Amino acid sequence: MATSAEARAHAPVRVATLANGLKVVVREEHTAPLASVWCWYKVGSKDERPGLTGVSHWVEHMNFKGTTNIPRDQVKGIIEQFGGSWNGYTWIDQTTYLETASREALDRMLFIESERMARCLYHPDDCDSERTVIISELQGGENDPDQLLDQELVATAFKAHPYRHPTIGWLSDLEAMTRDDLFGYYRRYYVPNNAVLVVVGDLDTEDVLRRVQQHFGSIPAAPVPDRNRTVEPEQNGERRLTIRKEGTTAYLKAGFHAPAAGAPEFFPALILDAILTGAKGINLWSSFRVPPPQRRSRLYRALVGSGLASMVSGSMLPTEEPFLYVLSATATSGTSLSTVEARLLQELELVRTAGVTPAEVETAKTQLKARLVFDADSITNIAHQLGYFETIGCRDVYVDAASKIDDVTVEQVNAQAAAMLTEANRTVGCFDPLPVHEEPAHVSVE
Amino acid sequence: MSSNSSSGRLPAAAVSTPAARLAPARTLLASGVVVTAKETRKTPAVTINLAVRAGTVCDPADAVGASFVLSRVIDRGSAHHTADQLAEALENRGISLSIGVNRHQLSIVCTCLSADFDAVLGVLGEMLMEPAVPDTELTLRKGEVLTAIAQDDDSPYIKAVQELLALLYGRTHPYGRPAKGTVESVETMTRARLLALHGERFAPAELSLVIVGDVDTGHAVDVANRVFGAWSNPTPPAIAIPPPAAITERRTLVVPMMNKSQADIAYGFVTIQRSDPTYYACSLMNNILGQYAMGGRLGDSIRERQGMAYYVSSGLDANLSEGPLVIRAGVSPANVDRAIASIDEELDRIRAEGVTERELAESRQYLIGSMPRALETNAGIANFLQTAEFFGLGLDYDVRLRDYLSAVTLGDVQAAAHRLLDPARASVVITGPYEATS
Predict the structure, then answer these.
(1) Does A200 touch chain B if contact means CB atoms closer than 8 Å?
(2) Among A345, A416, B17, B232, which residue carries the largest CB count within 10 Å?
């Protein structure tokens, strides 16, 4: 099985760099008559300064609104005509855009991405109209107590590193940001020497490289701003926060500063998470779309198996700099948060002090390697992984994931548990619902 | 800004490459189980998709939510193994189950490594045919369902659609009652009730098994026969779905949730059965109205031109009985009235003017051209084949879909809009921090 997963991860990939600094990653995958193009930029919410929080994400939205050579009214359906889909996302370390469509659409996909890199319009009316769309997105997130708590937990766990602010941004910044803020940010970061272009599909590598040169070769390189220099100081004591708001359900989260994807401790931490909450895999795009195998995991048994929680999950995400390992639990109706927390912390203390068993580590390895196979089932997923890890500077974490998982020892997992799951490194967040003041529903008939 | 690209012009659209024909193998086992198998060699993995015609429409009138609770407990112990043993058998292989229930079907879906296929299908069969529903597990799962009901009650997004379905069909109609049940019905749900429901509705002739992946078709059928070949249980009578009452007026329900930031709108109609001869015209009309390229016409108006919503779309759920068409949008409370007025305008326009030739061509091309993408993964193929089996669409549906869509005319689309989308008979639900202006 490890062989299968590794074989796919190790399938031939051509990496080339154009004269303007654009890194191009191409992989042929002849399983369906499709192509997937992802253009990644090394800019995310950690690059934002106070007053401009949310700008990376807003810029991403603006980059779907027409370019010099793709008038606004031609944007609609531009990829759908090829049976394709397109999208983008912004996160803490990077921003990306993708198209997956019929292989005949390759030229069009490359054209769109070259236009997006160099020639987006930022019409003032579009900037204003998108402001309300993004505020609507923010408010939609606020409607979900779990999401609200997650945002507050991260903001509390980090006091210096810009990972502390949400990717969507703070409302006052979104209300105040100008068209010049957005366009200036776009021009600073959207340059070929700050991008990685990934092409995977039923294609010929040489042909792809020729077309990439044709579309992107004349876009000039430009200086790229320095990225974040702040290192989060070591946390020396537990931090806590409580949100009290009307609601029906209580939520608990515990966050621990965790290793970056490129750190040697990353895979031991990933296995520790699999033992605690089930193996998820390492694909931010697809790993979380199906539930993990978690019923025999320690925290599921302790919290859900005992009826204290209706759900428990863990999130050990691959990031460029040390981020957070977050454990989440939803208290069952009638169960107090303090009871859930006490049980959660008891389990964490047990794993921290007594360690895990060799059998648990072996099961976690099997599960994680199976997830690597399941997550490599489409060209979209493969292209995502190549670009995601390239952008955070550690493509080997993806390519060699199966062998890195195999290499983890029980001692390494125990050392990681002992180092990470301490009280001093912990931030606990509670959503403690206040009774909902119900107003009567009313129907009107016309 | 001048063009730097080689041509500076949008490369022309070309005809999309058609998907290779699926040509699955369909076998009727002697027991009555239908097995549809398709061999692929994309990854060393297999997707197993089991669907039993035992959805929420099967809920007894006095035990609403029974099918949902059964779906939560069906994998928690069998006649031969405890919940823990079943979990171990699957999870040690890296497998997790997605168990879901919709109006007409309960589904168990998973992907496993090819090497594990035989053993995994055996475990799934045991769960499906002989669930034990231990009381301890039932108590735990009921606690989870009650929590989920409370969470839904706090979600304007979910509540808007729940209330819309109740408004469209009535709270006791199988399409209008809450899928998860109510606090009262779940609290009183017993093991005996669930086992009786299982005994009545789970029968070989009600099961469709789809197997897609890196497994020889003949072997897949052999294993299926080994697992399900000896299963017997009488085929239950079909559930009669009462025709929904005709809606002759426009109704607006406001559910104030003043602790929330954003309002959600669910705006809908009772539409057609999947077998309706106008289905493809309705489907194309819906695509143009609220799906194509980020929300269709509704997306153009409400999100792109007016910047009012992060999400807006429409969905057509034609089913065994007349399913709903639901338009959804999440908007600032201040924009609720304007968003609803914009939906009204778009519906009036599509009814009065129909759609353009270009719109029809683009949506048709999209629905045909997106097939290779939809059928790229084993899970995607399995889902497609399961839907085709459920609605009796035929083994060559992937090929014939193109013809069905090609036959739809501009007149058909306008007629579909005229028939389905009358704002004067719309049902509208608003949830969130909104107070009606009049």
Answers:
(1) no
(2) A416
| CB-based contact, A20 to chain B, within 8 Å | no
A233 found inside a domain: no
User: Hey, which bits of A158-262 come out as E strands?
Assistant: 195-201, 239-246, 251-257
Tell whether A304 lies on the interface with B, counting CB pairs under 8 A. yes
Q: Domain residues for A302?
A: 239-434
Task: Supply the pLDDT for residue A179.
Answer: 97
pLDDT at B18 over 60: no
Task: Indicate the fold that domain B25-228 takes in CATH.
Answer: Cytochrome Bc1 Complex; Chain A, domain 1 (3.30.830)
| CA torsion angle B366 B372 B378 B379 (round to 10) | 0
Cβ atoms within 10 Å, residue B306: 17
Measure A46 CA to nearest chain B CA, in Å.
23
Q: Which residues of A touch B249 (CB under 8 A)?
A: 445-446
| Model pTM score | 0.94
ipTM score:
0.92
**Which architecture characterizes domain B251-432 according to CATH?**
2-Layer Sandwich (3.30)
- Give me the residue from B17, B20, B146 closest to A104, CB to CB: B17
DSSP A48: P
Per-residue confidence in pLDDT tens, chain A, 446 aa: 334 555 666 678 999 999 999 999 999 999 899 999 999 999 999 999 999 999 999 999 999 999 999 998 889 899 999 999 999 999 999 999 999 999 999 999 999 999 999 999 999 999 999 999 999 999 999 999 999 999 999 999 999 999 999 999 999 999 999 999 999 999 999 999 999 999 999 999 999 999 999 999 999 999 999 998 999 999 999 999 999 999 999 999 999 999 999 999 999 999 999 999 999 989 888 877 788 999 999 999 999 999 999 999 999 999 999 999 999 999 999 999 999 999 999 999 999 999 999 999 999 999 999 999 988 889 999 999 999 999 998 889 999 999 999 999 999 999 999 999 999 999 999 999 999 988 889 999 98
**Tokens standing for B69?**
């609770």
Delimiting residues of CATH 3.30.830.10 domain(s) in chain B: 25-228, 251-432
Interface of B with A in 363-402 (CB under 8 A): 365-366, 368-373, 375-379
Residue B425 CB coordination number (10 Å): 16
**Residue A86 near residue A97 (C-beta atoms within 8 A):** yes
**Co-location of A206 and A253 in the same domain:** no
In sequence order, which residues have a C-beta less than 8 Å from that of residue B246 and are 6 or more positions away? none
Domain membership flag for residue A286: yes
Instruction: Select from B115, B153, B362 the Cβ nearest to the Cβ of A80.
Output: B362
Chain B residues in contact with A376 by the CB 8 A cut-off are: 43
**What three-state secondary structure class fits B220?**
helix
Cβ density class A139-157: b for 16+ within 10 Å, e for less: bbbbbbbbebbbbbbbbbb
Residue A222 inside a domain? The answer is: no
Residue A36 sits in the same domain as residue A185: yes
- Whether B405 and B368 have beta carbons less than 8 Å apart is answered as yes
Q: Are residues A41 and A97 in the same domain?
A: yes
Residue numbers of B between 290 and 319 with CB closer than 8 Å to A: 292-294, 300, 303-311
CB contact under 8 A, A446 and B261: no
* CB-CB under 8 Å, B111 with A374: yes
